[in-house]
Design brief:
alpha/beta, eleven-stranded mixed sheet, nine-stranded mixed sheet, 29 strands, binds zinc ion, binds fe (iii) ion
């Protein structure tokens, strides 16, 4: 008698995570006859078995999936007949099978070295002892080595490495941990390390030794990582750190620090349970956490902020390096200033020649640029600041399915783009600042790679309204008007937060950030919106001030402060107020005053970010910003040192043009008085944060009263501020509202492309 036949289909991130050998193991254990294969992006299992046995199979899959699989859906349907078969087989992918048209094949991001591999790495008896490229089905490179889907070795950067007999045995054995681990390798058949520098050349273990020697001597090493080159130096060596800053032209922006393990991380920073879990997760992001006083890091590692960015090794090579150095290492993107991170050996040798004293290369090509991700532990979970290696290109859901494929080209700073199709969106990895030809070329390369992999042909192109963004220019040049959708910057911010949290429209949206192109000829950035996924209405905003010199005022918070004091929308104190900035050159003050009075090169901005800048300058915390958001980062750090509960500064809401307007000038004037009275800077900085929280809660409460909408989506770069992110939700809850924050989608401009995609899809659907 033959048992009935069934087709079990599993949807989600199920390829490249060891799913087929896992099914093989369970099915064999249950003594089922059948076969498992990858079909499009799914895993399909055909079995002949009584229904109870099939139920046992699906229950196990659902309750106990392989560690890195994400299961969206399991469906079971009876099959008419099945060829008689004894035993359980694993079938290989049919080469070039079409990718599911409705969404994206669940292509996993790169995964950090697993515990089993790590044990082998340091086991002298193992044939992969100290081999820097070991991996298995539970770990290793994925997104950074793929040429084409389906994900099989011959369509990856590993195609050129022929498996040795021992590796081939593991690769073909369904019972082995390395069964179809596409990138597997060993010292006999896989990639190897190459050192170039002084001495001229060394290979394999010798190459590693040279790199360690160089680092020990305070040198800077360019290391070929998973998704790009990284620059490495001894984090405890002040001279090395200073040299890296000079050569990389990065005066103060914090450097990330890699530490060998959780214990070492705990010795450097105050880590919550959430921070530690985030740090140890397979994505291995850089986690921002308060540094412990007296840590062993050189002072130049994170100047001006108490937050240190720490991360754990994600690859065997990093484990080997950390173990040999036995001290924390600065590990930062392999680029100069804001250039795209180098991924190509020749390009790296050229662009990093003046930065690195030596190169630790290897011969496994990098197919796609994935910078290290950055996250902040918050309220028991992680919130991404920069989403790249380990997270991208894992798809995120769309609240309204994209009936026509959407390419959303994002903003300018912290650039990302998004592909949306069906009910999924794929946010490309963080690509830095989109402001020159190199950055545009990197954008094109990543976009083309992901479009090719997913056979994605955009029909709609969504873009920002800012005419000066290169992303906007790209959209205008490459899509005809009827296929373009322009999305207001802050609408995109709040839609991204709402969509990630599956919020039903309408919702209130708070978007606090640096600058975004408004719809009235001014820059926005302190917005309260009543929004849906198709449109929005502005309900409130921050008061405006001139930005003397435009960009120059963004780079120089002191100028921004003068802008508020000389010519804010509402007067910010009297003439004496400016005296608090008398450390500034008298000539600069005169020039700025004239610019403001004559309205020469003084674009108007009603922005929370600019107000944070002005406050930082008035408090003497930061006059010049060497990187975007530096003044706010420093202000938060100072505020965090305040003792006792923060007292809000005076503030008021006015009305103008039918909007509630937060009069930032009044708060600034009060700060000036307080500084003059000698009140402690830390308390004032904390008080300013509290003020913004109170203002927001009051505006939102009024908006809820007027509209009946009580869900508030908080977004924009200012929500990366840990104090605001921690204080706003409870303040809103206390006012009877409920707050949502982004987690996987960054609150900053890295999340804008996803918001654009969501809005474009909803508008397209609304048009029918
Ligand atoms: Zn592994
Ligand atoms: Zn081998
Ligand atoms: Fe923004």
């Amino acid at each position: 008698m033959t048992a009935p036949a069934w087709l079990v289909r599993v949807r989600g991130t199920v390829q490249g995570v060891g799913f087929r050998p896992y099914v093989h193991r369970i099915a064999t254990g249950l003594r089922l006859d059948g076969v498992v294969r990858n079909v499009d992006g799914d895993v399909c299992i055909e079995v002949s078995a009584p229904s109870a046995a099939v139920a046992a199979l699906t229950r196990t899959i659902r309750e106990n999936p392989p560690p890195h699989a994400v299961i969206d859906e399991i469906s079971v349907r009876p099959l008419g007949c099945l060829p008689a078969r004894t035993g359980f087989a694993v079938e290989l992918s049919a080469g070039g099978a079409p990718v599911a048209a409705r969404g994206f094949a669940g292509l996993p991001p790169d995964l950090a070295t697993c515990d089993d591999c790590l044990r082998e790495l340091f086991d002298p008896a193992d044939r992969r002892y100290r081999y820097p490229f070991l991996n298995c089905t539970a770990c290793g490179p994925r997104a950074t080595i793929i040429d084409e889907l389906p994900y099989d070795r011959e369509r990856t950067a590993m195609a050129g490495f022929t498996l040795c007999p021992a590796c081939a045995r593991e690769y073909h054995d369904p019972a082995d941990r390395r069964f179809h681990a596409e990138p597997i390798a060993c010292p006999a058949c896989g990639p190897r390390l190459v050192w170039t520098g002084d001495p001229a050349e060394a290979y394999a273990e010798d190459a590693l030794t040279e790199a360690v020697t160089a680092l020990t001597r305070g040198r800077i090493v360019a290391l070929k990582g998973l998704g790009g080159y990284q620059l490495v130096c001894d984090a405890t060596d002040a001279a090395a750190v200073a040299a890296l800053r000079t050569r990389k032209r990065r005066p103060r922006k914090p450097f990330a620090v890699m530490v060998a393990g959780a214990a070492a991380a705990g010795g450097l920073a105050e880590l919550t349970g959430a921070d530690a879990a985030l740090m140890a997760s397979p994505a291995r992001p850089i986690v921002l956490a308060p540094a412990l006083p007296g840590d062993e890091l050189a002072a130049g590692v994170h100047p001006g902020t108490r937050l240190a960015g720490l991360f754990l090794p994600a690859t065997p090579l990093h484990h080997l390096l950390l173990r040999a150095m036995a001290r924390p290492l600065v590990v930062t993107s392999g680029n100069v200033s804001d250039e795209p991170i180098a991924i190509d050996d020749r390009q790296a040798r050229r662009s990093l020649a003046a930065v690195a004293d030596g190169f630790l290369h290897h011969d496994r090509p990098i197919r796609a640029r994935y910078d290290d991700s950055v996250a902040r532990g918050a309220g028991g979970r992680g919130r991404l600041v920069r989403r790249a290696r380990g997270y991208a290109p894992r798809p995120v859901p769309m609240p309204v399915p994209a009936r026509r494929p959407v390419l959303a080209v994002g903003a300018q700073l912290k650039h990302t783009f998004t592909l949306a199709r069906g009910d999924l969106a794929l946010i490309g990895p963080h690509g830095g600042s989109l402001d020159d030809a190199d950055a545009l070329a990197a954008f094109a390369a990543t976009r083309e790679q992901l479009c090719r992999l997913h056979r994605f042909v955009p029909e709609i192109v969504a873009h920002d309204r800012h005419p000066g963004y290169l992303s906007t220019a790209y959209a205008l040049e490459n899509a005809p008007a009827e296929r373009r959708i322009a999305v207001q910057h802050h609408h995109a911010h709040v839609a991204a937060c709402a969509a990630e949290n599956a919020v039903e429209a309408p919702f209130l949206g708070v978007a606090y950030d640096g600058l975004g192109w408004g719809e009235d000829g001014t820059f926005w950035g302190g917005e309260l919106l009543l929004a849906s996924y198709t449109g929005f209405r502005r309900l409130g905003r921050f008061s405006r001030a001139p930005m003397p010199g435009g960009e120059a005022a963004v780079r120089r918070p002191a100028r921004m402060a003068l802008g508020y004091l000389y010519g804010g929308e509402f007067p910010a104190g009297d003439e004496r107020a400016v005296d608090v900035l008398d450390r500034l050159d008298a000539r600069e003050r005169r020039v700025v005053r004239r610019m403001v009075e004559r309205r020469v090169n003084c674009p108007q901005a009603g922005s929370a970010g600019r107000l944070f800048d002005a406050v930082a300058a008035v408090l003497g915390v930061c006059d010049d910003a060497s990187y975007e958001g530096e003044a706010a980062v420093m202000l938060e750090s100072v505020a965090a040192t305040a003792t006792g509960p923060a007292t809000p500064l005076p503030w008021r809401l006015r009305t103008a043009g039918g909007l509630w307007v937060y009069d930032g000038g009044m708060t600034l004037a009060a700060l000036v008085e307080a500084v003059r009275a000698g009140e402690p800077v830390a308390a004032l900085a904390a008080g300013f944060h509290r003020t913004v929280v109170d203002v927001t809660a009051e505006m939102c409460a009024r908006a809820a009263e007027r509209t009946g909408v009580t869900v508030v989506c908080l977004s924009g770069g200012c929500l990366q501020n840990g104090l605001l992110a921690a204080q706003l939700p409870p303040a809103l809850e206390a006012a009877g509202l409920s707050a949502r924050l982004g987690a996987e989608v960054p609150a900053g401009d890295g999340g804008v492309s996803y918001g654009q995609a969501v809005i474009a899809a909803a508008r397209t659907a609304a048009e029918g």
